[in-house]
Design brief:
The chain is an alpha+beta fold. It folds into two domains: about 5-210 and about 325-405, Aminopeptidase, CATH 3.40.630; about 210-325, 2-Layer Sandwich (Alpha-Beta Plaits), CATH 3.30.70. Helix content is about 35%, strand content about 25%. The strands form three sheets. Strands 1, 2, 3, 4, 5, 6, 14, 15 and 16 form a nine-stranded mixed sheet that branches. Strands 7, 9, 10, 12 and 13 form a five-stranded antiparallel sheet that branches. It binds (2S)-amino(hydroxy)ethanoic acid and manganese (II) ion (MN) (2 copies). The site of one manganese (II) ion has 5 residues, from loops.
Length: about 400
């Protein structure tokens, strides 16, 4: 039995409707109303496919099909279901939908796994609401202390536990999962880049994922009247921030080795057209395939910032996330490749420039990922699109791989 394209595209279409920005891409922030609608939809499908449903103290959703060996570790398949602001319908969601379809195929084919199969929908991978990112997987693997978790708040100062309770979740439930209860983690994800499309190849078996550091910088200046304050008497937070940010591209280019640096978020306070900005808060996202290049750029950024830390301008930097580059499991990679070849699906090895939950799990269990092409290499935007045929191919690969791994072969 093969994956059902109609069912897959229907899941993608219906989930994409749970957005706070209809007509302008998918905006599904963690623990928002859109999260709750998507959560209920996902749980409804899990129930339909005969899975036992649970949600942990982070809000991650699990659907489990028990195996014949009691208390055996699970093969987990899934991804995240939150989004960036005005993002696409496939980032994360494709991996959750493919997990649901694998569960449906297990049910239709009356597969009785030896090791349990679990489908997972992870929260806050993007960090769009609470900052940093990978919250669901980091929390599951005990890499997010309860103290740090409790401190998380969104831009409206709503703390994460209140946001959870607002949609009926219980943050007091267990968060950390014993890694011994996980036999492997598999994730299908869109490539979010141009490589597979340019090569006209359907499947990328991911070898390694770049490391990333996310910083939040606060520039404190002095508000003032735009008309009456002489130019030499200003402590303009936005001008100081702009001079720092403008220097970033060259830092990454000088570092080379595909190192990238991005400022995606910038908030100006008090944000009045006739007020000299008193404060600016902006993000810095630094990535490279090798840790040394990330650290070099972080160091240069810190030197740049301290050079602007003068007079009435004060600058504070906070690290929101750091995760080193990860190599995915060699055995799982070879199974994914073998299955792709057996199904005669064109495939190649590929590295990921995007971060993924699989990189968190890879330190605790055998983690593997497959990519499918992104049209024009676009992602994190409403134009994000992937071919349903590729979703079917990816599902068939994960289904056959799950059959093998849940049999313990
Ligand atoms: O930022 C990333 O790489 C991912 O989309 N969270
Ligand atoms: Mn993303
Ligand atoms: Mn993603």
């Amino acid at each position: 039995m093969f994956a059902n394209q109609k069912r897959i595209t229907q899941h993608i279409e219906l989930l994409s409707q749970f957005t706070a920005s209809p007509g302008e891409g998918v905006t599904r922030l963690t623990f928002s109303k859109e999260d709750l609608d998507a959560r209920n939809y996902i749980k409804e499908q899990m129930k339909q496919y005969g899975l036992t449903i649970s949600e942990d103290g982070l809000g991650n959703i699990f659907g489990k099909l028990e195996g014949t060996i009691p208390d055996a570790p699970s093969i987990i398949i899934g991804s995240h279901f939150d989004s960036v602001p005005n993002g696409g319908a496939y980032d994360g969601t494709a991996g959750v939908v493919v997990g649901l379809e694998v569960a449906a195929l297990f049910q239709e084919n009356k597969c009785q796994p030896t090791y349990p199969l679990e489908i997972i929908a992870l929260v806050e991978e993007e960090g769009s609401r609470f900052g940093g990112g990978l919250m669901g997987s980091l929390g599951m693997m005990g890499l997010l202390t309860n103290e740090d978790f409790q401190k998380l708040a969104d831009k409206d100062e709503i703390i994460v536990v209140d946001a959870m309770r607002n949609i009926g979740l219980d943050p007091s439930k267990l968060k950390q999962r014993d890694p011994k209860t996980i036999k492997a983690f598999l994730e299908l994800h869109i490539e979010q880049g141009p490589i597979l499309e340019e090569k006209n190849i359907t499947i990328g078996v991911v070898e390694a994922i770049v490391g990333l550091t996310q910083l939040e910088v606060t520039v404190q200046g002095q508000a003032g009247h735009a008309g009456t304050t002489p130019m030499n008497g200003r402590s303009d937070a936005l001008v100081a921030a702009a001079q720092i940010i403008a220097a970033f591209p060259q830092l990454a280019i000088d570092e080379g080795h595909d190192t990238v640096i991005t400022t995606g978020q910038l908030h100006v306070y008090p944000n009045g057209a006739n007020v000299i900005p008193s404060k600016v808060v902006f993000s810095i996202d630094i990535r490279s395939a090798q840790e040394v290049h990330i650290q070099n750029v972080v160091q240069k950024v810190e030197q740049l910032i301290s050079s602007q830390n003068r007079g009435n301008i004060q600058i504070f930097t906070e690290q929101l996330l750091h995760i080193s580059p990860k190599e995915l499991d060699v055995t799982v990679r070879s199974v994914l490749k073998e299955v792709s070849d057996q199904l005669a699906i064109p495939n190649c090895s590929i590295n990921s420039g995007a971060g993924h939950d699989a990189m968190v799990f890879s330190d605790f269990t055998a983690a593997g990922m497959v990519f499918i092409p992104s049209k024009n290499g676009l992602s994190h935007c409403p134009e994000e699109w992937s071919d349903p045929n590729h979703l079917v191919d990816g599902t068939n690969i994960l289904y056959q791989t799950a059959l093998r791994l849940t049999k313990g072969i």
